[in-house]
Write a structure and sequence with these properties.
Blueprint: H1 2-11, H2 24-48, E1 53-59, E2 61-62, E3 70-81, E4 84-87, E5 93-98, E6 105-106, E7 111-115, H3 118-160, H4 166-205, E8 208-210, E9 215-220, E10 227-228, E11 243-246, E12 251-258, E13 270-275, E14 282-295, E15 300-307, E16 319-326, H5 330-334, E17 339-342, E18 347-349, E19 352-358, E20 364-368, E21 370-375, E22 378-383, E23 390-393, E24 405-407
Parallel strand pairs: 1-24
Antiparallel strand pairs: 1-23, 2-17, 3-12, 3-16, 4-11, 5-7, 5-10, 6-9, 7-8, 9-11, 12-15, 13-14, 13-16, 14-15, 17-22, 18-19, 19-20, 19-23, 21-22
Helix pairs in contact: 3-4
């Protein structure tokens, strides 16, 4: 009985004893699982999300009424002046005064500069003195001729009365005729002296440099005190001109067109010109003439183009791009269809023309489009795009539907 009681006491649970400590192995396993899940989430955020591509964009613009003319040929050239001159004196001399500055507008005949007139003044004074001397000689011979005529008249009466010999009368007549010849020579000397004075006056006028036509001074080449010569005979320190004047009303465009494409250009053909300095300014122009001569080295033909819209921003030697236009049909010109986008926005995917449109969330949508005519650096799109949308320029090959993009600000 006692043995059974002892066994029952051993089986009784002691409620006051502390619980056994938890296992640390399970805790480390739980922490490891949490850490692996955090690393997986970070890896998905970094590697799983696609980085946006940097692209250039452009807006889609509705077709304007005057944009229905197709460009049949593009070329580059320069603005040139058909009427330009480097103004110089007609004689060699020292500059005394210069009355022009760059950018100044002058009228035809306006005085631009003056040379030192000391030599011209001396020559004019000499010619004036020679004229006075010749005139005095005429007066002297004329007085002598009057006396000789009177003498010959008296002797003629005496010889008829046989009061003097015939020889004396003949001598008087010879003296009279000799004075007549001397008077004629003296009169001719007066004319020569007068002409010499006129020439010296012209030489005096040569010291004044005037504008040959109205225009704008583009270069001032001489200063007071310098020597100028039209022949540049004075060496490297001698100027050949006073300045350069350009008639801005004579500005036009010259371009070189390849021989292979010159057949597309016709006189009176409409042209759209764009200056390199003002790329957003479209200048209306027109073909003047095709120069009937080719450049053998460059295989090009020069074409002259008239600028129909004059502006002070257009100056000589500016670079310009031109598009030779072909007038569209009247019904197309009245109702232009579609929109226009830069040519670089149109690419081919699976053999079909497409464009990538950027949405509000910076994701792109691939659109199938129907291209139309070429408009200089742009292209008409008849369907697939709407005005106001934004398209990607030069889409990279990796760009696909739904990709995220960011605009390249550079």
């Amino acid at each position: 009985m006692n043995a059974s009681a002892e066994l029952l006491k051993e089986l009784r649970i002691d409620r006051k004893a502390p619980p056994p400590p938890p296992s640390r192995k399970g805790l480390w396993i739980a922490l490891g699982i949490v850490l692996l899940l955090a690393l997986a989430a970070a890896a998905w955020l970094v590697l799983g999300r696609e980085r946006p591509l940097q692209v250039r964009t452009a807006p889609v613009v509705a077709m304007a009424g005057n944009s229905a003319s197709a460009s049949v040929l593009d070329a580059t050239g320069y603005v040139v002046a058909r009427r330009t001159a480097t103004v110089s004196a007609q004689i060699t001399g020292r500059v005394e005064e210069v009355m022009i500055e760059e950018g100044q507008r002058v009228e035809a005949g306006q005085v631009l500069a003056r040379l030192d007139p000391i030599n011209a003044d001396a020559e004019r004074n000499l010619a004036q003195s020679q004229l006075s001397s010749a005139q005095s000689q005429v007066d002297t011979v004329a007085a002598q001729l009057v006396q000789a005529r009177n003498e010959a008249g008296r002797l003629e009466d005496l010889v008829q009365q046989r009061l003097i010999s015939r020889t004396q009368y003949d001598q008087a007549v010879a003296a009279r005729d000799s004075l007549k010849a001397q008077l004629l020579t003296a009169q001719r000397n007066v004319k020569v002296a007068r002409d010499q004075l006129a020439i010296s006056n012209i030489g005096k006028d040569f010291t004044v440099v005037r504008a040959p036509f109205a225009g704008v001074i583009t270069a001032k080449a001489a200063q007071p005190g310098e020597i100028v010569s039209p022949l540049s005979a004075g060496g490297g320190f001698t100027r050949t001109g006073i300045g350069t004047i350009v008639d801005m009303d004579s500005l036009e465009i010259e371009v070189d067109v390849g021989e292979s494409y010159i057949g597309r250009v016709q006189p009176k053909m409409p042209v759209e010109a764009t200056l390199n300095a003002y790329p957003d300014w479209k200048i209306p122009a027109e073909v003047i003439a095709i120069i009937p001569a080719a450049d053998r080295g460059k295989a090009t033909v020069k074409v002259r183009i008239a600028i129909l819209q004059k502006d002070v921003r257009i100056v000589p030697d500016m670079g310009v791009r031109v598009s030779f236009l072909e007038k569209a049909a009247p019904e197309q010109a009245e109702k232009p269809k579609g929109v226009r986008v830069p040519t670089a926005a149109i690419v081919e995917r699976d053999g079909k023309p497409v464009a990538f449109v950027v949405g509000d969330d910076n994701t792109v949508q691939q659109r199938a489009i129907q291209p139309g005519i070429t408009l200089s650096q742009e292209r008409q799109v008849l369907s697939g795009l709407q005005p106001g949308e934004t398209v990607v320029l030069e889409p990279p090959a990796a760009l696909r539907e739904g990709a995220r993009v960011v605009e390249d600000k550079e």
